[in-house]
Amino acid sequence: MKYSKLGLMGILAAALALCGCSSSIEETTAVVSKDGKVTSYLFEQFSQSYYDKDELEQYIEEEIEKYVSDNPEASIKLSKLKLSDDTLRAQIEFGTDDDYAGFNSVTFYNASVVQAMSDGYEFDVDFYDITDSVETEADNSSDSSDDAYVPATVSLDDITADTQNKVIITDENIDIRVKGKILYVSEPKARLLSKDTVSLPKLEEGDEKEMIYIIYN
Question: I want to staple 127 with a disulfide (CB 3.0 to 4.6 A). Which of 71, 94, 114, 184 is the partner?
Fold first, then answer.
């Protein structure tokens, strides 16, 4: 069976905790460590009879080998891949945010806010304080209105007040976990799953990708 990289990413559409990662991870999740490494936790349910685990694993390994051959400085490793009970589970480790972005053909930048500005990233977007979104969402669980929760906006001065603040800039609508505390995001529909994990809203049909800024420290 042949797979394209985009097809593979479609197959691996959601994430599940594997081997030491918190069981609270239930959606496609990129976990960013303190040293900048990124671990992708993935899973998808489908008919096991349609896919072959060994063939899929071989394909992923070949895609990694091909990418590293073209980018010798890259560090990418398929740590886990398991197919059981009609569920595919995978864990892929990336040495840097650049490795993750390049292999997955997405934008994924992680650095200090100061460094991001120095690298030319514009912070001319609205930022929102979603630190109470978990409690507020629970309070409004019976409210069907899309406007039930409206986060407060914050200024660029708030973003840059602490020189230790970091930023993740991405166009990938997934869950993201950091080593630290998430403070602000540029997407008002984002929700905190915990102080270190933000869930970015899934794109609807016809939606265009946009850069999302996640501020944390």
Answer: 184
Would you tell me how many other CB atoms lie within 10 Å of the CB of residue 111? 17
Distance CA 17, CA 32 (A): 14
Q: Quote the pLDDT of residue 22.
A: 44
Lowest mean pLDDT among 155-159, 179-183, 199-203, 205-209: 205-209
pTM: 0.81
Determine how many CB atoms are found less than 10 A away from the CB of residue 101. Answer: 19
Q: Do strands 166-170 and 108-112 pair parallel, antiparallel, or not at all (unpaired)? A: antiparallel
Q: How far, in Å, CA of 27 to CA of 140, rounded? A: 22
- The residue among 89, 100, 80, 82 whose CA lies nearest residue 30 is 100
CB neighbourhood size of 89 (10 A): 20
Mean pLDDT of 100-116: 97
Cβ atoms of 87 and 36 within 8 Å: the answer is no
Residue 205 burial by Cβ neighbours in a 10 Å radius (0-12, 13-18, 19+):
exposed
Tokens of 64: 């990694």
Looking at the chain, which runs of residues are DSSP E strands? 29-32, 38-45, 76-84, 87-94, 108-112, 127-129, 152-154, 166-170, 175-177, 182-185, 191-194, 197-199, 212-216
User: Is the pLDDT assigned to residue 19 strictly greater than 50?
Assistant: no
3-state secondary structure of 51: coil
* pLDDT higher than 60, residue 63: yes
